[in-house]
Every structure is written in C-alpha cells, then in structure tokens.
Amino acid sequence: MTVKTIRLVSEQWQGGMNENYSFGARLLSHIVPPSYSDETETIFTPVSSEVKSDGQVDAGATLIEQMQATYDILVAKEPLNVLTLGGDCSVSQAPFDYLHGKYPAKLGLIWLDAHPDVATTKTSHHLHEMALSNLLGRGAQNFNQAIKNPFKKEDVLLAGLRHDQLRPMDAAVSELNLQYVTPEALATESTAVTNWIKQQGYTKVVIHADLDVLDPADFHSILPAEPGLDKRDFDAAIGTMKLDQVLRLLTDISQTADIVGLTMAEHMPWDALRLRHGLADLAIFK
C-alpha cells in the first residue's frame, strides 16, 4: 500500500526542556481533523525520557538520536507528504530534511513563527531556538552534520516574525538577510507570502507553524498564555496574529502551492495541563 501522507506525532520536549510539550503533542493529535484515508498513516516518533547532553546543546545527544530515528522512519516509508504534530520547534528538522531530499527543486520553506529560531550554540543551549539554523547548516555542529539536505537562505521566508523584538541570538536574520513578513503585513491579506511563492517559482512548500505566532489573548494554548503570567516578564517576543489570520494564510498558501510538509509545534494546553496535574495525587487515578 502506498503511503501518501504520514502523520508524525512527536512528543519531543527536550529541545525546549519543557516536558509539557509532550502532552501538548498528544492532545494536538486528537484536535486536528482525522483522516480515514488508507493512504495516511499515523506514527508516534521515538522519544526518550533521557536528557543526554552533547556538551553544546541541552539533551543534544538524546535529540540527535531522536532526529535520526525520525528521519529513518520517513526514508523507510517514503511518504509524499508529512504532517508533524509537536512537540518543541525542533521536531521540524527531520521531516523538512527528508522532504527537501525528496523535492530538491522548487521547494520553499515558510517559518511561521514570532521568533526566527536562528540561534547558534554561542547564543543558546536550547535546540528549539536554533531549529532553522540547523536546517540552514549553520546551527549546532552535530546537527549541521546530521542534516543531509540543508536549505539555502534564499528559499526561506519568515512569516509572522516580530522583527521589532529580535534578540542578540536572532542576529542571523540580518546577517543572512533573511526575507521576512511581519504580522502587520498579514493582518488582512496573505499576498506578501503568496507573492513570494509565485516570484520564487515554488511548486511545493513546507510550513513550520509555531503556535507561538498567535496572540495569547486570542489563542490560549501557547507558552505565553500561562495563567497568571505577567507578559512583561516573558523573555521572548509574544505573537500578535489571530487564529483566523493564520488559518486564512494557510488556506491561501495551499491555493498557491502544494503543502507537502506542515509542522504544528509548541502546543501548550494550559487548562488541560492544570486539570491533569491537579488530579494526579488522587488515589483513584493511580
């Protein structure tokens, strides 16, 4: 049987060193629309409870083993499309690497995120902050070497980026002159992204959708929507896009090019987590 689409449920959490990302991925797999096609297969990727460091990245040794295991699954299955449900932002590395090998020409990468994730080991020790750097071959050394089909900077578009909130770890945005579109430019239309696809001549795209691109006042299952959090104490940019805007953008992209890869990452369902943790001490649940 031909596998057209693989759904990867990646409970990987070590990239952000936050175990709640694991539960977020499992719950997200129940939220997204189901598929009843014989050509779609759902696979839970191997995720360890270990945090073996490689000396540069927190849990780096564990993470690279998980990335390689995921890549090997995709090579064995040979899907045409990959939907990845995460998990921290580094879950995009293996599927996008695989898809770029399968579609080496005319494949664009859209990084839909409030943050660019272009840090290096000189500026961060969390893999989810350097996921795009690794795909560009300029992140953590061990991961750069493991990525078999790196992307060129010209084939990357940062969408929803809070450019006014960039940090020193985000310097590669200007150093590489990465193309970007702000949330304001996407507030009422998607043409800044769809025109880029057309102008570059892409027939296929992969999209990394970090749910943190969303405004926590509009969508509450993301890290900066933590109950009681003073937003002034949050140490990174906070997304400003509305869910309707993101859904419209994804629809417009799908009408412009084939979406062969889509990642939804960093789902943090606070209400479900609070209920789950709050019930944990009751004997009836043991």
From TrEMBL:
CDD domains: Arginase-like_1. The keyword Lyase does not apply. Keywords: Hydrolase, Manganese, Metal-binding. One of its GO terms (molecular function) is arginase activity. InterPro entries: Ureohydrolase, Ureohydrolase_dom_sf. One of its GO terms (cellular component) is cytosol. It comes from the Bacteria. The keyword Transport does not apply. Belongs to the arginase family. PANTHER family: ARGINASE. This is Arginase. The lineage of its organism: Bacteria, Bacillati, Bacillota, Bacilli, Lactobacillales.
